[in-house]
Amino acid sequence: QVKKEIDYMFSLVEENMKLSFAAMETEDLSDREEIFHNEKIIDFTNKALTQFLLKLSVDVEESDEAVIGSYFHVLNDIERIGDHAENFHEIGAEMIAKKISFSDKAQEGIADMLERVMRMFSLSADAFDRLDKKELSELTALEESVDAMKRSLMASHYSRLAEGSCKAEVSPYYSSAILGIERVADHLVNVGYSIVDPTGSQE
After folding, report:
1. CB 118 within 8 A of CB 18
2. d(Cα 164, Cα 57) in Å, to the nearest integer?
3. Second label for 165, Cα 20 to 30 Å away, from 10, 17, 42, 62?
């Protein structure tokens, strides 16, 4: 039952990621209430499951201790992704309020990076749900490609700033979006690798 609730949390976090970036791209905040509603469910479920697992952990067989330990870490990772999704929505809302937007080039980079991360959602969920280690190699490869994209996109961004083809007031929002996406990828790897190590370590 705990695993089912974690799966449900994970689906809400994935949905909030999609909604937040759609709002950023279209400059349409009509999904704000749905995002906030989902985030409240995520936070509530995280607290409830954490409290339940704490009570359960004092009276379980040794073979279940590692599973409970991994669930603690997975819950933390999912909750953190939820926070990032909410932050992405706030980035979009602030930009709309200030009437600023990303350049087409910057938007393309974000979309490419996000596409890889959304694929990681699928791989990570499958690995966790089915205890399928076959998904982990692609998950790692995608995470490494997201890291490389972060470095490349940030370098290109600074070049555009130097050339004057990118507005300075957009810079903090672009940097926050790129860095946030990269951190989401890290959390997704942790969730996937929780099936082989309670902490989500790839070592």
Report:
1. yes
2. 57
3. 17
